[in-house]
Amino acid sequence: MNRFGYYKARDTGDAVAAAAAHAARAQFIAGGTNVVDYMKLDVLQPDRLVDINVLAKDVHGRIDVTSEGLHLGALVRMAEAQDHPDIKRDYPVIAESLMLAASQQIRNMASLGGNILQKTRCQYFRETSWPCNKRQPGSGCSALEGINREHAVLGTSPACIATYHGDFAQALIALDAIVSTAGPNGNRQIPFGQLHRLPGDTPEVETVLEPGELITSIDVPAGPHTRRSHYLKIRDRQSYQFAVASVAVALDLDGDRVRDVRLALGGVATVPWRSGEAEAVIRGNILDERLAAKAAEAAFAGAEPRQYNKFKVPAGKAAIVRALLEAKAMRI
Amino acid sequence: MQRDVSDLQSSEASEISAGMPFIPFASAPAGGASETEAVELSINGENYRLTLDPRTSLLDAIRDHAGLTGTKKGCDHGQCGACTVHVAGQRVLSCMTLAVMAQGEAVTTIEGLASPEGKLHPVQQAFIDNDGLQCGYCTPGQIMSAVACINEGHANDDDEIREFMSGNLCRCAAYPNIVAAVRQAKAEMERA
Predict the structure, then answer these.
(1) CA distance A71 to A56
(2) List of chain A residues with pLDDT < 70
(3) Which residues lie closer than 8 Å to B5 by C-beta, 6 or more apart?
């Protein structure tokens, strides 16, 4: 691990100013489960660590559920949100996506804001002796012809096929969440679907956030679909494992007919992945297994699997069918 | 550990070639780092005034600086749970926590569980009663995790115990006996 200066921020403005003073070489730290890991691996080498945990003691550590929607402070810990009775009842896809991630120790530590920005687990990104365009722009992608079983089949580019492994983000993109930030140029709100950037030819640029810009909260608008929402996660072992494929789904039903649907995919794409293609197949129609299978085909029509991750296409399709039918069967 | 300049990322290397003498880990970087900081930790109710490199994990501070070696280092990357301790009553991974960030919070390790008279905590006793270990290396982490699991209310049946203890790996695979130990301890803690 490289040497760094540690700075404990006093409040949001202080945190932003402290980070902005060191521009791209500063790193915010909250729970540390991702940042400390990657610092130990020398993948992250910040000059300055800005500890933002003090923000948990103010408004950014709060959960509020109102008729307008769900407000989550960015410093809320995963475990707090997963166990919140109102979230479990009104936004089950959010509670489930958190509960099915990591371990309870990590969920006690990890903040929601940090969770959204977690780095890929691509083994070539983690191990600094390999070329990796995301870690060292222009050095090449070792995964393209390497052991790419864990890698993405959607949203890939010739420069990077690293999977975005988060679960919570799939629930947020499905429910049209809004991210609020504070930064050197003031505060702003970003639709969740615009936060992450496809790798393209600059995979090292993962989000639209500016240096020194800090996520302060997340808002999820209320709607008739949020109660009938569900997160299904398929993985190699039943707990404490990243997704092979996962599905966040929310349905607004009129009998068997789908008034509205939101569907996002995890474990198979380079960024949090909303499938407008699958939604278009389902919306307005009677939901049964055949329609769900048609939606699954549409979701993966553009998939570009490589040598070892071909199985993710049928696994992802099966997950979509199961998630839709399970959401339909929910008693709310 | 010494590193070669060739290991460094290009931006760091260019700073060095711009005329700074390079002494690995000894020169102060741009972030205003000092080599060591005074760090005060409260572990098992006792205050420790330590002088630490800011890179020191809570795990290394507990073991190597406070001398409490009950907490174990397994993977050192947040994957095995052997280093589990309680910070402010919550189970966390001490390997993924920087010691400077644990200041002002109450830290509890395996050494802090038994009563001052030496009576074992019900979870410790339950691990003995149920043979919840073979080699024992993961056991301090398992026990700290189990105490919190029960306190959180996440030990209501075997499936829930398995789910909420999944962050603690046991390569001897004593899992069935660990589940039995958590079940027994939960019943005893509820009676107490």
Answers:
(1) 14
(2) none
(3) B13, B16, B22
Provide the sign of the torsion angle of the four alpha carbons A50, A56, A62, A63, taken in this order.
positive
Q: Which residues of B touch A33 (CB under 8 A)?
A: 78, 93, 96
Least Cα separation, residue B37 to chain A (angstroms): 10
Q: How far is Cα A33 from Cα A39, in angstroms, rounded to an integer?
A: 10
**Which of the listed CATH numbers 3.40.50.970, 3.30.450.20, 3.40.1260.10, 3.30.390.50 matches domain A229-329?**
3.30.390.50
**Residues of A within an 8 Å Cβ radius of B:** 1-7, 22, 25-26, 29, 31-33, 36-37, 39-41, 45-49, 51, 53, 79, 102-106, 108-109, 136, 239-240
CATH classification code of A5-52: 3.30.43.10
Closest Cα in chain A to B33: A5
Phi, psi of B70 (to 5 degrees): -65, -35
Q: Which of A15-29, A151-165, B142-156, B173-187 has the lowest mean pLDDT?
A: A15-29
Please name the amino acid found at residue B76: D
Structure tokens at B190: 């509820």
From CA A214, how far away is CA A184, in angstroms rounded? 9
Tell me the pTM. 0.93
Contact A109 B167 (CB under 8 A): no
Handedness of CA A50, A54, A58, A62 (dihedral sign): positive
For the B122-191 domain, the top CATH level (class) is: mainly alpha
Alpha-carbon Rg for chain A, nearest whole angstrom, is: 19
May I ask the CATH architecture of the domain B37-112?
Roll (3.10)
B-chain residues near A31 (CB < 8 A): 96
ipTM of the complex, rounded to two decimals:
0.96
